[in-house]
Amino acid sequence: MVEYTPSRSGSSPHARSSDRMGGDEGAELVSMIESRLDRRAFQEHHWTGSMREYLDILVQRPGAVRNAYQRLYDTILSHGCEKYKLFKRECVRYNFFSDPFDRGADAIFGLDFALMSLVDFLRSAAEGYGTDKRILLLHGPVGSSKSTIARLLKKGLEAYSRTDEGALYSFSWLLDEHCGPSATSHEFPCPMHEEPLLLVPAEARADILARLNERYTPAHGSGKLRVVGDLDPFCRKVYADLMAHYAGDWRRVMEHVRVRRVVLSEKDRVGIGTFQPKDEKNQDSTELTGDINYRKIAQFGSDSDPRAFNFDGELNIANRGLCEFIEVLKLDVAFLYDLLGASQEHLIKPKKFAQTHIDEVIVGHTNEPEYKRLQSNEMMEAFRDRTIKIDVPYNIRLDDEIKIYQKDFGPSRVRNIHIAPHTLEVAAMWAVLSRLEAPKKAGLTLLQKMKLYNGKAIPGFTEDSVKELKEEAAHEGMEGISPRYVQDKISNALVSRQTLDDRCINPFMVLNELESGLTHHSLINDEETKKRYRELLAVVKEEYEDIIKGEVQRAISADEDAIRRLCVNYIESVRACTQKEKVKNKYTGKDEEPDERLMRSIEEKIDIPESRKDDFRQEIMNYIGALALDGKKFEYNTNARLYRALELKLFEDQRDTIKLKNLVSSVVDDETQQKIDIVKQRLIKNFGYNETSAADVLNYVASIFARGDSKAK
Fold first, then answer.
1. 260: alpha, beta or left, given left = phi > 0 and alpha = psi -120 to 50?
2. Residue 74: its pLDDT value, please?
3. Is residue 614 located within the same domain as residue 543?
4. Is the domain of 421 the same as that of 563?
């Protein structure tokens, strides 16, 4: 046994280093370290005890014997969820997939329907309805978060096993090296972290489980407690030898058992396994089910002695938890045969040993080409029959796609470089457009379809229309531009020479990177596809121009007092018009007819036709009346449509006084420059620009006006 003793020498390098730090600084650093350590949690996670003590724990917490599917399902539900409606469909957002473990580093956005299918699969498996005998296959295009979902499941299980609710236990044997019953000097952990109740004879185990189920109230409806199977070959031999030595006295055998708490960990290879395909010539099924330890054959005399076998394959060490198969359909056929039994019968076949029971969730993921090959291979029918496929598509909602890029390029990640407003938005817009199918409805553009999916109201379309659009494009989101490509091009823009000089990137820089990268895109060989993607970039650029024109218009017309006065004049005229009255002129004191010219000049800005003007005016008056009944006051910005019309009217009135076109000329008079500076500061304050990006936007919009393209959108 190795003993660890502290050095007694006062002249060690560490001591001298501590002296050089001066005073008590070293002690302060040690205190800082100790303040971050939780010794109580460490002791709880490393608890050990007798079989009797473990049974006492089960009386208090029967859920400790849950199987892998029940545990994973409870892991997800333990973080809560929220329900909402999307396109008239009930939807559930599980907080687990926001990655509460790493502050959202692996958060998943916009895939709630796919994740609902995954949780439904786990619920069915937890209840024992049959899906626990299937392989969960995540299927989707490259970069659609399949690996991220698997990584979250593993991280979640690890974190859950550290909580009181998620505690689980295994056991070790106290023996000498030759498994003799008398000595207790060595501890031999169960190589597959098995449930201690497997040490209870099957005849008694059923009675214990019945008693535990009487006390067990599943927190999330994860089914009855079930402990099935038998011990692994190593533990089975030790158990049999001890039972023979003690003439069947089970109590005496249990004196050689030390129950211990298990914390799942992928790094420590405890309950979490990951298998990645290698070159087919180097693949060996023993990587899944373990291999012979040739050094111990001489000691134990046979290669079929379980003590001379390493039960350290991925399926062995993942017992009680989860095993992830990366690109599962690229596995050699010999591996897939192992997965057939592992999924259907929960059995694996280590070399030279009987079939061994496993309790674990098997998750694989693959992309479209590999899955199509599986479907066309008649020899793989048995494997197809044992998988449940869940499609993991790309995002088709703009806001969710933007969140992906904000996570990677938000202020907390990108410092000292200003990312101009809409930079991430235009990149996300192009990515989403590439994934959408052309709408079949006449008069609906792809851009409008994207906006409908994002929840924006478009005249003539309802939620039922959106539902129909989604139903007619069932494959939507399974093709298109990957978020990884967009992330790479944003990164390129961030490290370009121009960025290093200006410390700022804007949408045009990113759009240029996206377009130039298409020429050498490794996954796009079809020229027609590249042409389509370039056309979509033009659509995005046009939309961005409309956005910044609108922002400049708002910045120019952001004089609140002027808008308020304009609103008062409009409402007075509308009230008089609808009530067949006259308006008193506050300057002359005379009664005059309502200002029809003013009303129409405002209403036309939001496309209210002459035939609908009376309806719109009555609608505004009804709106004001409804607010009054609720004790609320109508303000110029209360009604969004009217506010936009007032902004556009004020912009039209002030545009010529600011003479924005002069920005593109070499000479700007002081008065105009002063007004332009005011507009620039409004862009900075109200829209998030900095000095450089605000000047860029003003110059670009000015060039548009110089060309005469000043139509407001």
1. beta
2. 96
3. no
4. no
Percent of the chain whose predicted confidence (pLDDT) is above 90: 52
Phi/psi of residue 392, each to 5°?
Answer: -115, 90
Position 226 in a domain: no
Domain identity same for 541 and 440: yes
Identify the band that residue 86 occupies on the pLDDT scale cut at 50, 70 and 90.
Answer: confident
* Domain finish residue from 657, 680, 699: 657
Beta bridge partners of residue 504, listed in sequence order: 418
Residue 321 pLDDT: 97
3-state secondary structure of 127: helix
Q: What is the DSSP string of 347-401?
A: EE--TTS--EE---EEEEEE-HHHHHHHHH-GGGHHHHHTEEEEE-----SHHHH
Look up residue 265 and give its DSSP letter. Answer: B
pLDDT band at 702 (very low <50, low <70, confident <90, very high): confident
Give the C-alpha separation, 703 to 693, whole Å. 15
In a 10 Å sphere around its CB, with 0-12 CB exposed, 13-18 middle and 19+ buried, how is residue 531 labelled? Answer: exposed
Span 26-53, mean pLDDT? 89
Token pair 């496309």: residue: 607
pLDDT tens figures, 604-624: 888 889 888 888 989 889 888
Q: Which two tokens stand for residue 42?
A: 């460490």
Based on the structure, what is the number of domains in the chain? 2
Q: What is the span of the domain harbouring residue 411? A: 398-555
40: Cα separation from own chain's centroid: 32
Is 634 within a domain?
yes
**Mean pLDDT of the chain, nearest integer:** 87
> Strands across the sheet with 168-175, in order?
48-49, 257-262, 168-175, 186-189
Cα–Cα dist 313/350, whole Å: 9
> What's the one-letter identity of residue 709?
D
Residue 63, pLDDT above cutoff 80: yes
> What is the 3-state composition of the chain as percent helix, strand, coil, each rounded to the nearest 5?
55, 10, 35
SS3 597: helix
- Stretch (H or E) spanning 169: strand 168-175
Q: Which of 523, 555, 587 is the last residue of a domain?
A: 555
pTM (two decimals)? 0.84
**What does DSSP assign to residue 273?**
E
